[in-house]
Amino acid sequence: MASNSPRPSKADRLEAARAQARATRDAAEKKRRQRSLWIKIGVIVAAVAVVAGGIGIYVSTQFNPNNTVAKTGPVPANANQYGGVVNNGPNQLAESPADTPQEINTDTVEGAVGKQGEPTKPQGANDKANPAQVIVYVDLLCPFCKQFEDTNAALLETYVKDKKATVEYRMVTFLDRASSTNYPSRGANAMACVANEAPAAYMPFMKSLWKAVDEGLVNEQSASSGLTNAQLGERAVAAGAPDSVKSCIENGTYRPWVKLTTGLAQQANVQGTPSVLINGETYTGAADSAEAFKAFADEKIAAAAKK
């Protein structure tokens, strides 16, 4: 059947080709971003509401009482002054260094910001460490952090078991603003409670928190409320912590220390999570690439063994 539609002109065909090329590039860029290692600091998941005939954007934690954090607080046992907890053996944590203070003041990191374009330089990073020193900055609401753990946790456990590396976790809260209940801060506090009271339960508890995402209890793609304090307590006890850990979690005992950890990370130019460094050098590959991370880690660990 003959068509009555006019044949597109050469200019129309050229424009259509350009539009298709743009769409292809945009789709590729979107995919690249989704697979990127970084979640930039300041990402805000906001709720949009129509109010009085206008559109208002509200950050859900703006009026959240969970935002209130004391300026001073204790440092958990088995933690260091930089906000790190070091896994140095199967379900084992290193004891706190002798120079670790018993109490911290968050005034030292108030308003902390990094310098754009500057490299990440974590406090306490040791470029001569042997076994190699792995530092991992983690946010419990970060989907790429879960990707990294799902992909590389077993490898890191092997390095630790074989005494090739220690793995230091620094729990940060960049995505508090993406949670209606400050879940990253509450979860990091719960992990500090477990480190303090039951160090052997720390790694199993971390795994349990990531499993909560698979169970649909934590939604990393929306303004998630995350687990309640009661649920955090139940999981901590199930991981091996004593029942007394529940009051530590409920009271937010280590929220000031968690805030300090996040501020120190910002001062160190940590631009997103997960940020992974081995002997001070940053991994820049994809969070879900086992091959890329293993190649990077094996190279750094081999170099550390020669020092």
Count of spatially separate domains: 1
**Based on helices, strands and strand pairing, what is the structural class?**
alpha+beta
Q: What is the level 1 CATH name?
A: Alpha Beta
CATH superfamily: Glutaredoxin
Question: What would the principal axes of the Cα set say about the shape?
Answer: globular
Helix residue percentage: 25-40%
Mean pLDDT: 84
Instruction: Tell me about the largest β-sheet.
Output: 6 strands, mixed
What order do the strands of the largest sheet run in, or round the barrel if closed? 5-4-8-7-9-10
What fraction strand? 5-15%
Task: Give the second-level CATH assignment, the architecture.
Answer: 3-Layer(aba) Sandwich
Spans of at least 5 consecutive residues whose pLDDT stays below 50 are: 1-5, 30-65
**Span between termini:** 79 Å
Quaternary organisation:
single chain
Topology pattern, helix = H, strand = E? HEEEEEEEHEHHHHHEEH
- Number of helix segments? 8
Number of strands: 10
Describe, in plain words, how this protein is organized in 3D.
This is Thioredoxin-like fold domain-containing protein. The chain crosses the membrane at residues 37-59. GO terms for molecular function: oxidoreductase activity. Keywords: Disulfide bond, Membrane, Oxidoreductase, Redox-active center, Signal, Transmembrane, Transmembrane helix. This protein is α+β, with helices and mostly antiparallel strands. The chain has a single domain (58-305), classed as Glutaredoxin, CATH 3.40.30. It contains eight helices and ten strands. It has helices spanning 10-34, 143-161, 183-197, 202-214, 229-239, 245-251, 255-267, 290-305; strands at residues 46-51, 54-59, 72-74, 84-89, 92-93, 103-105, 132-138, 165-171, 275-278, 281-282. Residues 1-5 and 30-65 have low confidence and may be disordered.
